[in-house]
Fold each of these.
Amino acid sequence: MRKTGRWPGGLVPFGRSAVKGNAGFTLELDPEYGPTLIEMIRRFIEKPSFSAVADWLNEQGVPTAQDIARIRAAAGESTTRLADPKPRGARWTPTTVQAVLVSRSLLGEYVRASGAVARNDDGTPVMRSEPVLNEEEWAKLSDAVASVKYPRSRRALRRRQWA
């Protein structure tokens, strides 16, 4: 299923929707939340701040991917299995914004739960959906992310200062 670009199910990435076709489900840019995803990316590139983007999303009342799944499940519009299909009103945090903006799923690639990109036998990435970003846009976003990410530990920071 994955190698043919079909969606195997589960939580749909923010800004995309699972669409049933003749060969099964695929992911497409969501007509309702896709423009918000594009605006999220644009705002972050313009002013790299996970917190500022999270604040903007919360001010706009944009639900998280999990709450979108709950809303759609409660309305019978989703096959995602949830223990409790009622939206929780979860708020965006800098961490949830970062998770969306660093995912290679924005390039249409199938990303495993571990964060690794699934690969075809020839080494190319398994494509799961139409890309949200092209390579040039991904590079700009990645540069913006790199400009605000901190080293994982103080030891790593000290090593960089003395190098």
Amino acid sequence: MNPRVSPLRVAAGAVALCGLLAGCAETGAKGDPGGNRFISGDGNVQKIPAGERKGPQSASGTTLDGKPVSLAALRGKVTVVNFWASWCAPCRGEAPSLEQVHTETKASGVEFLGVNFKDSPQNARAFDRRFKITYPSVFDGSGQIGLAFRDVPPNAIPSTLILDRRGRVAVRVIGATTYSALKPLVTAVAAEK
């Protein structure tokens, strides 16, 4: 047996390896361990001028610790609504940034609300403990809260919507966000009169 490998075998191996790696590459759709499919975003920011905003948004649910919450009750405050799941790697990556912006803006009246979906309440609570999330999250197993945002849908996991004081979507971030991207957006909406 010849220890040397023929160039034809090397080429065939390279083609097979490329095919295998292409199957692992992102195509815009991913699957979580539970078999859910989701579209990954790229952090794209859409700012909506005040005169073009739709709303107000109306949705309600129960937080992970059993308390009722509604978007109507948060009107009058700037509200950051983050759609996430515990199995979502970008959600884990952005969690510390969301918590930091929440901590730094809550004294100025900015509210944060997480919306957990395609997940389980147990995994969602474990996520909040792991990342020391102090703002409330709603378990939205049926997706009803996401559907309430028909005019400016979240469209990806994670997604973040910033609602103005009238409950209208002022900013949409599709995909993971960072502290340096989110803080100025929240501050700008909070500065609106």
Amino acid sequence: MAALPQICPPAPRWRGFWLAVALLAFSLQAGGQNLPSLNSLSLKFAPQHAVMSGYWLEIEHQRASHPQQSFTLTPQLYSGPAGHPDGLRKVNPLNEDESVRGFGVQVQHRLYEMPSKASFPAGFYVSYGPHLQYFQMAFHRNSWREIQGPGDLPYYEYGPVRFTEKIVRYGASVQLGYQAPLPPGPVFLDIYVGMGWRHSNSNSDIEGSQYRSGSSDYGHRGFYFPAGVKVGFALSALSALRPRTPAAM
């Protein structure tokens, strides 16, 4: 029986990496014992994904009983012209009018280095978790196509033909970042870098995927290195800024 194809790196390559992450997570969690209880909710937008017609809104919720921990949920929407992050598909003039529609979700658990004095989690952190994405790519390419002619007789016409490619991508990543407020209001920045691995399956009208030009492309599979900045605001801080109605005498 033929051996099944291997879709992930051998275990020895990952042992040291995951051991380091586990030790860091344990040390951060251990340092958060006996800290004051907090509760907050914040929203963030990741502008760098807009170049791929992607719109990411991250929701972060801090656990009331563990102020150094939080969970993030990031719904993703893709709609618009297809991006060219790696610049390689532009040298191929065959595909024209490329567009993308899709959605995705990412869930991560965060561990902060120390408790925050702000109204939201702040400081250095490590986060980890999975993601799942679906893309429907569309593009036009000049090709022969069969159409109905006079008398219902088929004949061939050369011109732009619409093709599609459907992509399902999934994986996980570990990220290190720093979240800090921007005075004087409840706005803050979240800067992060990380490493991850993902796999993708594609179903295309044309043989072979058209969207694996590099690690930032829609159909990429293998290692990648997420990095960027998020701009957000704390909902708990906004509620604290609301004017209070004076008590009735």
